[in-house]
Design brief:
- The protein has helices at about 10-20, 60-75, 90-100, 130-140, 145-150, 195-205, 215-225, 235, 265, 270-305, 315-330, 330-335, 340-350; strands spanning about 45-50, 80-85, 105-110, 155-165, 170, 190, 210, 230, 245-250, 255-260, 310.
- A six-stranded mixed β-sheet has the order 7-6-8-5-9-11, with helices on both faces. A five-stranded mixed β-sheet has the order 2-1-3-10-4.
- Residues about 1-30 have low confidence and may be disordered.
- The protein has a domain at about 170-255 and about 300-350: Bacterial extracellular solute-binding protein, family 7 (D-Maltodextrin-Binding Protein, domain 2), CATH 3.40.190.170.
- It contains 13 helices and eleven strands.
Length: about 350
């Protein structure tokens, strides 16, 4: 998620470890080999799911519905309790817990710290710039989804699909000069995620950048350390409505939450119960995709009603931004993502290299 750069969260580490050691929500019996096909399941799992999303948000409610569906369709054999608002720890901590099987499901963005190639599934600037392109690459059988599986499964993580959180944008204290022209200096310092690809993208779009942990962004805006913040789209912009005056729809990426599970836990299930999880994840992935554009529009209306100036770049301006990033930033990312994957992305977009 765009609120992902939260390194050094010592308190969250302590809390997560304490919860992990004391919780009764760990699997009742360590997962071992999956049940033989056709055999009556003998396990009764009580698992945990972690997310940054608030419980009462649209996306938090979707996780609750997913867990309820899995419990019902497995007749209670797989009972997943969701923990919201980083209760189990920060995004980074939950990723570590997932790999150790201390938490069985993480409903959040991909963490490229484990393998830099995973950036292709998290923040690859202007890989997509609209929802049609997004579904082609992130939906069932899409290139990004396939790449994520190939890279993550050797790490002990199984993905069951992506949930679109919205096309990304930028909030600022005032309208910058020529926001749709990447060649015009904006003379404005903004907060970006602590990722090389984010920094390079918004520098190429004309901004001065600094990496700030998401939980410190509000105070940084309030005190004038930065004049804007990127990522997360209109739904994230709403969180900063009291300290920002403008929202610019850049469409530099579509933020996604992934259903990510510990492979050892998944392998311990019967084929039927694995299919239940896959089916529930696919159901909510598709349903959110059908709703996300409406969600974007609702939050844009709320921002405008609150007094923020909304700037929707023209298609010509979006194309200019995308071209600038693909020509000038993507080559800088090849050493991180790898030549093979980079060429696959070029091919997917029909770009010569």
């Amino acid at each position: 998620m765009s609120k992902k750069w939260q390194m050094g969260a010592v308190v969250a580490v302590t809390t997560a470890l304490l919860v992990s050691s004391l919780s009764g929500c760990a699997p009742t019996g360590a997962p071992s080999e999956g049940e033989p096909e056709g055999a009556e399941p003998t396990y009764q799992y009580e698992w945990r799911a972690g997310t940054d999303e608030p419980q009462d948000s649209e996306l938090g409610e979707r996780l609750t519905a997913f867990c309820d569906e899995v419990k019902k369709e497995t007749e209670g054999r797989v009972d997943i309790t969701p923990y919201f608002s980083s209760t189990l720890g920060s995004w980074e901590i939950m990723g570590d817990m997932l790999m150790r099987n201390d938490v069985q499901l993480v409903y959040d963005a991909v963490n490229s710290a484990y393998d830099p190639r995973l950036a292709a599934a998290y923040y690859m600037p202007y890989l997509v710039s609209n929802y049609e392109e997004y579904w082609q690459l992130y939906g069932p059988g899409g290139l990004v989804r396939t790449l994520y599986s190939e890279i993550a499964e050797p790490l002990g993580i199984v993905q069951f699909g992506a949930v679109a959180r919205g096309m990304s944008g930028l909030t600022t204290t005032e309208v910058p000069p020529s926001p749709g022209d990447p060649d015009v200096p904006k003379n404005m310092k903004i907060r970006v995620m602590g990722l090389k690809e984010c920094r390079l993208t918004f520098e190429r779009l004309g901004y001065l950048t600094t990496a700030i942990s998401y939980d410190e962004v509000y105070s940084a805006l309030q005190t004038g350390i930065v004049e804007g913040q990127m990522g997360g789209g209109a739904i994230q912009a709403w969180q900063f409505r009291d300290v920002q005056k403008c929202y610019i729809q850049y469409n530099d990426f579509c933020e996604s939450l992934w259903f990510q599970m510990n492979k050892q836990s998944v392998d311990s299930l019967t084929g039927h119960d694995r299919q239940v999880i896959a089916g529930a994840a696919d159901h909510h992935s598709r349903e959110q995709f059908e709703y996300v554009q409406q969600m974007d529009e609702e939050y844009l209306e709320k921002l405008q009603g609150y007094g923020l100036e909304i700037i929707m770049l023209t298609q010509e301006e979006l194309d200019a931004c995308a071209t600038a990033i693909r020509q000038d930033v993507w080559p800088e990312l090849e050493s991180m993502i790898g030549t093979v994957i980079m060429y696959q992305l070029y091919d997917a977009l029909g770009i010569e290299y």
